Amino acid sequence: MSSTLDALNQWVDEVARLTQPDRIHWCDGSDAEARQLNDLMVARGDLIPLNDKTHPNCFLHRSSKSDVARVEHLTFVCTPEREDAGPNNHWMAPAEAHAKVDALFAGCMRGRTMYVIPYCMGPIDSPISRCGVEITDSPYVVANMRIMTRMGAPALARIEREGTFVKGLHSTGELDPERRFIMHFPEELTIKSYGSGYGGNALLGKKCHALRIASYQARTEGWLAEHMLIVGIENPKGETHYVAAAFPSACGKTNLAMLIPPEGYREKGWKVWTVGDDICWMKPGADGRLWAINPEAGFFGVAPGTSQKTNPNALAMLGHDTIFTNVAVTVDNDPWWEGLPTGTPVKDWQGNDYQPGNGPAAHPNSRFTVRASQCASFSPHAEDAHGVPISAIVFGGRRESLVPLVFEARDWTHGVLVGAAMASETTAAATGAVGVVRRDPMAMKPFCGYNFADYFGHWLSFDQPGAKLPKVFHVNWFRKGSDGKFLWPGFGDNLRVLEWILDRVDGKVGAQPTAIGNLPRAADLDTQGLGLEPHHVDELLHVDRDGWQREMDEIGAYLDSYGARTPEALRREQRKIADALAG
Ligand code: GTP
Ligand code: SPV
Ligand code: MN
């Protein structure tokens, strides 16, 4: 046996001694295994079968009421030096963190089965992909990992070949928020998560591995692990450009990744190809361009707001082989959430009789888990081993005022500042207040596994001789008018903005230079058929000088909060823009 498999077996033994499971099951990823686990979960009530005629092989899972989102205040990055985790992370000394969480793991799997899940993040044959092993006592986690990653025998074979893997230990514990920790040990390539069965807290391949641990590795190895969708836009000439876009949680990545072009665009021949909806690993290729893969194999998407009107591709893929978490159900036992125009909820997300006075029927962070290949727009290049070349990077946030619909960064350094300066209103994807504007650089605030100041420096370092870097943009679909309604229709119509972006990439269209970046001229944005009032378009493309002066001051203070580690080039760029706004 190889030394890697020895090391894996040894770790599994150690964990078993600590957690004391009744049984150990090595997941092979087979269909038979999946059926067996599903039957077990249905028997235990962990999964509720949905209407078999309308939703074959679909199940509902209701999580514990106080376990419905990521818990940022309980998420730690445990580097030996506090400064290396940075002010952007909660920090604990590694020895203290291990001791704290191991005390919770002790004996926690008594009476339970321990599942060992070898998985690969990214196409199994891609040099950019990385493997991990998650140990969990939750069959729901196994079922989700099976959809979200390449799990089982091929991953184990790759681990043996490569000699390295990320270790993730997870237990749902008592699901007690007072006994819940999500701990990361980047230098040990180790994750320990206790006390939650939900999403990013429990499916350790996703945010814990593919972002927090991977971002740390990416820094030392010269690549980028980002909270970005990847989408291919094919124009009527048949040319496809790939765009990577970072929006904070619940700010539109899944929707943009699978948008359906507006009718006029479809008629002309525009097509959209989905590569990924949440995470992007990018690496400079021999040609100087950034090449990207989606490390995931499935979508763990927000259910509320998903409808035939907003995201028909998503709705269609949810008709079979899908796990729904914390949605409501109708009298016909169909899944239901706010934003669906038909159907009436009879049971809310907690399984109680639905009463409108008790809040939404589906939890605002209710989710679907589904294979990426079930999406009609799934890109034929999504599984290419070398990835897809990125032409544009788009940052965006949820800002009801100030931030225009779209602007372009002048160059890479300006683009890095635009990403570092991102801010967005908080959403239900994490516990805590919703709707509060906070800085969320590159949409990575909850996910960067090291000090943001060093991360900004890492981004800047890609600007090397010979590099053919993507152009950088910022978008905001969420501007509101004085009536409190969104000014921009969003969803499929966002292609109109992407068209301008790609025309800029190809040098086909002009722009209006401003202090904050280059904006489209109203005439260059195709708003035909939208029925937008001209003053709304002006508002969407307006740069409010006073407001932006205040914003730039805040950004300056934010960069200063990282102290001397903040790259001077970013501070210079910020001052340059502040001066231009003042001048
Ligand atoms: P995570 O999975 O948490 O990372 O979220 P995400 O970034 O993939 O967000 P998603 O696409 O699931 O959208 C979240 C919410 O924003 C949903 O309720 C959508 O309906 C809504 N949304 C998405 N795109 C738009 C848009 O262009 N305009 C408006 N107004 N709402 C949007
Ligand atoms: C997010 O919160 O950004 C998600 C959902 O994509 S979770 O998997 O819970 O992180
Ligand atoms: Mn996300």
> Measured on Cα atoms, how large is the radius of gyration?
23 Å
Query: How much helix is in the residues?
Result: 25-40%
Tally of individual domains: 2
Q: With helices defined by DSSP (H or I, 4 residues minimum), what is the helix count?
A: 17
Separation of termini?
Answer: 69 Å
Bound molecules: guanosine-5'-triphosphate, sulfopyruvate, manganese (II) ion
CATH topology (fold) name of the largest domain: Phosphoenolpyruvate Carboxykinase, domain 3
Alpha-beta classification: alpha/beta
Write up this protein:
The chain has two domains: 3-48 and 69-222, Phosphoenolpyruvate Carboxykinase, domain 1, CATH 3.40.449; 226-298 and 380-582, Phosphoenolpyruvate Carboxykinase, domain 3. The protein contains 17 helices and 30 strands. The chain is 30% helix and 22% strand. The protein is α/β, with parallel strands linked by helices. Helix 2 (31-44) runs antiparallel to helix 5 (139-148), helix 12 packs across helix 17 (568-582) and helix 16 (545-560) packs antiparallel against helix 17. The termini are far apart. The relative contact order is 0.12. A hairpin with an 8-residue loop joins strand 6 (113-121) and strand 7 (130-136). The structure holds guanosine-5'-triphosphate, sulfopyruvate and manganese (II) ion (MN). Sulfopyruvate is lined by residues 70, 199-200, 206-207, 249, 278, 300, 429.
Descriptive key words:
alpha/beta; binds sulfopyruvate; Phosphoenolpyruvate Carboxykinase, domain 1; 9-stranded mixed beta sheet; binds guanosine-5'-triphosphate; 17 helices; globular; binds manganese (II) ion; 30% helix; Phosphoenolpyruvate Carboxykinase, domain 3
